[in-house]
Amino acid sequence: xxxxxxxxxxxxxxxxxxxxxxxxxxxxxxxxxxxxxxxxxxxxxxxxxxxxxxxxxxxxxxxxxxxxxxxxxxxxxxxxxxxxxxxxxxxxxxxxxxxxxxxxxxxxxxxxxxxxxxxxxxxxxxxxxxxxxxxxxxxxxxxxxxxxxxxxxxxxxxxxxxxxxxxxxxxxxxxxxxxxxxxxxxxxxxxxxxxxxxxxxxxxxxxxxxxxxxx
Length: 215
Hints:
alpha+beta; four-stranded mixed sheet; four-stranded antiparallel sheet; 12 strands
């Protein structure tokens, strides 16, 4: 009888130990599952946050890009005023006169002539404009389908270079000059690359050679 009691006692102890181990395993498994779920949730939250940031960046980019609404002006003449609508701002430019020269300040043309253009710019934006940024994208060409030559005013002492800041509503006058081949007419315009890239409308002045040659 005593022996039977010992056997039953040993069986009960073994049973309790098995149940305890099973409970520990279940708790460990549940804990691991919770950790995995938290990691997955964190990853999802981080991914959503990144998407939100990307969306915000795209929205900001869209807001920084101005929509060009002013129509192109492709047939302006000397004395006409063109209206520019660009990502830098809006402004008006008047080409008052042009002159073909063989040399200026002791500098001869690298080609056939130097073309000197007198113009004025008025800031129609609600913020300051840097004139050099505006003039950097202007050129003269003798063939409308080909690229031309940019401003070289900084290379001539007597030329009134267009520089500085124009405040809203203010106007500035100056000169544009560059080397040019002989032609019956010339075109003063915004560089085609700027127009094709969507940063500006196109404005073109046609300058007949006989209106620019000195007497």
